[in-house]
Amino acid sequence: MRKTILIPTDFTVNSLNVLKSILVNNQGMQTFDILLVHGISLSDSIRDLLFYSKAKQIESLTNPEFEEACEVIKNKFDSQISSLRIDLFTGYNLSAFENYLEGNKVEQIFTTDNKSVLSNKNSFDLSRFIDKCSVQVIKIDSGFNTIIPEKGKIAEVFMNQISMG
Question: Looking at the record's lineage, which domain of life comes first (predicted)?
Fold first, then answer.
């Protein structure tokens, strides 16, 4: 059985711990279409919109550690991951978010109680839409992160253990 899930991301390795937790706790050996989504506001400038490229925007927001951690997770949980996409949500209201969820056939949203690290001035936290949307939201308890010297590195994906609530 295949399920489409959405996980908000801030392009840090720590945000991938939610994905790792889902895959580790997958008892039914379900396969997932995974959407890692980041909220970002578009410019109002016509010139900026003419030359806007979602791929370039994603490339500017990601970092080598995040990309490598995604590859490690894809390789480790290959049998459970049908697809893994990184996408941007650029809407301004709940209706736009609901349309995004419907258009991508998202069945569940997994999120954590940790605040996102918004490194870009145009980024915004998706939690204001996630809390009010009609799709099932599952909160992941991340209250007991292990203190590791490799914070922010790929090793963090393998060291942290979080539980599903």
Answer: Bacteria
* Helix or strand (DSSP H, E) at 111: strand 108-112
70: phi then psi, degrees, rounded to nearest 5: -60, -45
pTM for the predicted model, two decimal places: 0.83
Which range is least confidently modeled, 67-76, 86-95, 111-120? 111-120
Q: In 10 A of CB 82, how many CB atoms?
A: 13
Question: Whole-angstrom Cα distance, residue 149 to residue 155?
Answer: 9
Amino acid at residue number 21: S
84/86 Cα distance (integer angstroms): 7
Report the DSSP pairing between strands 163-164 and 136-141: antiparallel
